């Protein structure tokens, strides 16, 4: 018997990167999954690959900043599988024009908050009542190491992730007695296909210098942590901010390292 047999999970941003890694790991561990993504075609392809190998999955198109679409996403999970046990609020946006505050594009700021903070709130709003119906559940929010430290740029992104950690604590506090656990995972740099396209070889070498471990992590490393936290093995963990970052925040001057890296990139 697999650790997540009989469980139903919704993963936003599930068609790529960390979300895709989580989808594949939870399916491997026995869960039925809803691959929720703004890119519906990519989500459908993921589902085709899963079902071809005998897994259980459906695709749902969702812009997590739109309440009606989030509501439909949760309803699709319950209508298809009869329950909801796991929500992974993973979808996020980190635009390249997210700079210092005097140069802030306010529309961009609002859009980042809509996706990165409003989206998870809406997911919780509609998932929690369904979890209460079955006696509990687990919510994972993908936050970021950026939410814990000051940065020379990525101002909106960092603020949204700090807010997401606060949201995590509120959900854990308000619904612990409903047997609903909520935790934040804080990735550092993760080697997704998008990261590999964006970063030069020199830049990757500089990023590796900032890590305490020999190499940069991949989506499978975040997915392994998600799988543990949503399983019975993680049943006494809630309201926590768990770094999964190769130790980058342990090292003094991490912000200065990142500025040096970006200056070198430019």
TrEMBL record:
One Pfam family per UniProt = adh_short_C2
Which keywords does the record carry? Oxidoreductase
* SUPFAM superfamilies found in the cross-reference section: NAD(P)-binding Rossmann-fold domains (SSF51735)
Classification via InterPro entries: NAD(P)-bd_dom_sf, Sc_DH/Rdtase_CS, SDR_fam
Question: Does the record's keyword annotation contain Oxidoreductase?
Answer: yes
Q: Which family does the record claim for this protein?
A: Belongs to the short-chain dehydrogenases/reductases (SDR) family.
> What name is this protein filed under?
Short-chain dehydrogenase
Q: Which organism is it from?
A: Lysinibacillus contaminans
